[in-house]
Amino acid sequence: MARVIAVSNQKGGVGKTTTSVNLAAYLAAIGRKVLLLDFDPQANASSALGHQALSQEPGMYEGVLGEKESHEITKVSALERLHYIPGHPNLAGLLVELVNAPDREYFLRKFVLSLRHRYDYVFIDLPPSLSLLTVNGLVAADEIIIPVQAEYYSLEGLSQLLHTIALIKTNLRHPLKVAGAVLTMYDERERLSRDVEKELRSHFPHNVFQTVIPRAVALAEAPSFGKPVLFHAPDSPGALAYKRLADEIIAGEEVGLMPSHFGNFSIL
Ligand code: ADP
Ligand code: MG
Q1: What pLDDT, on a 0 to 100 scale, did the predictor assign at position 259?
Q2: How many helices (H) and strands (E) does the chain have?
Q3: Is 44 close to ligand 1, i.e. is its CB under 6 Å away?
Q4: I want to staple 6 with a disulfide (CB 3.0 to 4.6 A). Which of 141, 178, 191, 222 is the partner?
């Protein structure tokens, strides 16, 4: 049964999609069966996997509304074990469709329940917002990975997100676990990067991945080739960092360090 992991942060441009695509790719390369759900109307994860942008093929929108079965909309990426279900700008319209539904927070969860038994990991790439799409993503997931860009305002955004997680836990009675925050676009030559890291680790000593993702040009270039970075520049620092993150996640499972054993974020 898959671990279902939402990759979320309401800030845009912090590395959610880059993390979803490349972490999913390395786990698949190690031999795990992985599904990436692109639940962002911008559909960047789909195009990073080589999906035709603005393709009229059905995807997450039709799946979540129950118009298509998951197997009808699942695509195989350049990696045999990495499957994905594409996003599309029409996902923005899903907000309107769902807003009056009584169980509007649970649509994605029901969809995920229909397919999670087929995979080891299901990743959900979420949009930069705290909208109903994001709430659906967090309610569908067992765990959340939070990419945190190494910059000054990141920690403020993080407290907002943790507040949302707390609301989801209490109001929707959903036991969402924090698998970890991952520092992205880190530049060890910059004092700011080092300061943000120090601050993050001192506030949340048990909830920050050891692996740090450097600012690395190959990660920014890979989407233009429509393939994860492991095809395009496997020896680049960015690629090696995502490989280490995948290894760290698997090592955590092997020593029984599942997220339920991590401490909770202390500012909740
Ligand atoms: P989000 O999904 O949070 O909006 P993205 O993953 O799309 O963020 O990243 C935003 C931009 O930054 C993209 O152009 C991406 O290619 C680039 N990027 C992401 N992570 C890195 C990194 N570690 N080094 C360099 N560029 C990065
Ligand atoms: Mg994104």
Answers
A1: 55
A2: 12, 7
A3: yes
A4: 141
